[in-house]
Amino acid sequence: MATVKLYRGHWVVDYRDATRRRRIERPDGGFEDESQEKQAAEALLAERLAERAQGIVHVGHGTFEDVATRWLKSKVRIRPSTRRSYEQLTTCYLIPYFGSRKLRLIQVSDIERFRTELGQCLPQSIQQAFTERQLKAKTDLATARLKQRAQRMRAGRPTINKALTVLTMIFNYAIRNQWVARNPADYVEHARDPRPVRERPLDLDILTPKEITALLDAARPPLYRDGKPLTNNYRLLISFALFTGCRMGEILGAAWSHIDFKSGQFHVCRAFKEGRFQEPKTRTSYRRLTLPAFLLNELRVWRQSCPQSPYDLVFPNLDGQPTSHANLLQRGFYPALKRAGLRRIRFHDLRHTFASLLISNGEDIVRVSRLMGHANASITLNIYSHLMPREHDPSTDRLAALVFGNNMETPTA
Description:
With 413 residues, this protein is mainly alpha-helical. Helices cover 49% and strands 9% of the residues. The protein has 16 helices and ten strands. Strands 1-2-3 form a three-stranded antiparallel β-sheet, with helices on one face. Strands 6-7-10 form a three-stranded antiparallel β-sheet, with no helix packed on it. Strand 2 (10-16) and strand 3 (22-25) form a beta hairpin. The protein is extended.
């Protein structure tokens, strides 16, 4: 039976939770005398009984950090890159801000305050966590300089919204385990771009045909000495990305055995990402792409001088090992953009360029979806529908014909 009693010199609550597990809890806070502690224990017991009636169960110390840690451990079917993203958001932002707080006491106003403070500057607790992480990674860094750097930092809108999304997922996990009754993060709006709609940049930064030509002209072919390449073939690599729509990892993991020069097709069946070879992103990412004739010819020429690789790579580094993402960007892609006088875009925008130009050229959306390796055509439509050619829509004319018949003139008063 639930009761308040003296236990080891303190007033505590003794009760069984919704799972019939016995629990003994001491009320939080400092008390001037036993009567105050007893009153706090009675209030705590009433709160626990109300929660038990709702089926809520407490776990561990019931803090946000406890639940966030359990949530991360429960994510066993996510990709390593997704796990790192979740870990970064929880350890860098959420746990430093909410970590020691009781999960059930976090309110909508607390999360809104978190969103606001994160957009202005890093809250003190997050600054301190940042400094401690940096000092732990590199002990020779100056603490004062790190603190100044942390004070100047602030989170961007995408980071804030990702943190709010993870926070929602953590609360949903707690609800499924009956540790809380509701999700306060569901009631918090994501951060908005304050700029007028027309001034906001598109998520896709697409190159025009003229810009593609300028980029390929600026991308440097390999330099040779005694018939051996001294630099990577970044021009061919960028051409491959533009005319296949492949992801960066799919290109860096491509092998010569994946290219059928007779049929002119490239079989996407491997990716190099996060320092290791992986399967493609999804089941539909396994696909066969027909390569244009000029690209096949350039690949034949490159194969004669390509560094030998134990992994049969099409675009290895000079030692035959997989090319790192950073080297591709810093030594090949970004310098080519700069020499071409183009804005700095993401390498992934070459993939968007591929799909966008196909759609604007009238290609069927289902075919484009298959070439992109999307799970279904609706994904392709959601991303690129605003780029599809706009034709005269006769639906309103048909409606008017239905209402007025052959006499298309509207009735006069």
